[in-house]
Each structure stands twice: as C-alpha cells, then as structure tokens.
Amino acid sequence: xxxxxxxxxxxxxxxxxxxCGLLLTLTGxxxxxxxxxxxxxxxPIDLVWEQGIWDMCSERQSSHDRLCGQADELGYFEKxxxxxxxxxxxxxxxxxLLGLVVAALGVRCWQKEPRQVLxxxxxxxxxLSGLLSLIPPSWYTHELWALPAPADxxxxxxxxxxxxxxxxxxxILGGLALAFSFHHCCKEH
Length: 189
Known about the structure:
Keywords: Cell junction, Cell membrane, Membrane, Tight junction, Transmembrane, Transmembrane helix. By secondary structure, this protein is α+β, with helices and mostly antiparallel strands. The protein is built from 6 helices and 5 strands; from the N terminus they run ααββββααβαα. It has a single domain (about 35-185), classed as Butyryl-CoA Dehydrogenase, subunit A, domain 3 (Up-down Bundle), CATH 1.20.140.150.
C-alpha cells in the first residue's frame, strides 16, 4: 500500500523539510563563511577573508589561491556571538538528528497507523532544534560590524549565515508540521 494512504500530509511535510533543514544547518555550521572581509588596508585589493565559527580562510579572487587555518590576531574567535554559535549550532544538529530518529519511529510507514504522540514529540524536538540554530546566525548578523576586523575594511554577511537561517526556518516549519500530530491524537481521544 502507498505511503500517502496512512501517513498524514503534515507528517510527510515534516519529514521532508527537517532533513533539508539539517543539511543546510550542517553546511552553515561547518563552512568558514559567516562573514567576508574585503578591501583590507595594506593588503592586495583582491584579498578576501572568510570567517566562520571554526576557521578563517583568505582567498585571492584573481588566482583563487585559498588558505585556511589563518591566525586569529584580532580575537575574533573569543567574541561571545562566535562562542555562542560554536555551542548552539552543534547542539542543534544533535537535537535535529534525535528528532528525526523519533519522527521516523512515530511516522513508521510499515505500521498500520502512525504513532501520533511520538510524531508530535519529534515535532517539538525539531522545533526546539530549529529555534536553537536560529539564535546564532541572528545574533551574529546583529553583531556583524561589532566583531573585530581591520579598520576601514568592507564587511558582508557570508553564505553560511544565510544557509543557517534557511535551515533553521525549514526545521521550525517541519517541527510545527510534525507537532500538528498532537491535534490528531487529541481528536481521537
């Protein structure tokens, strides 16, 4: 029999959105591009620094020579928004994985009926993980220009922040969709 016959649409939506959110959040967490610093005084005009929450890279735009593991001479990694992201992003990823395992057990398509309460609990865990991974990119973006950088350089938001935002939103929406399972459970009793 077909998946859609027994599995409510909200559960399917949750099981599609949350893994997509996980991939985006994972990429955002690992990629060293939360902020780009360019037009750095006394440096080649085409040099760009990419700063993440774990690593810093410098790249020459003309030759694409890229070097990671750059020394943090300005104390960038010591700043609270970066430290918070180092704690919250991995915590969120672990919670997302946990939530997806619980969701898989709750939605289980090989059973006659999905376990509504389990799916609902998974939804709440995924909602929480989405909120946890929404805090760091929001805080980082708010503090973007306050974080240490060479004077008179140009600062822009990197793609890692954008991916983290998108991933968080997908996890929140997927979590809400799964949490909607509680509605069915209450209707039945």
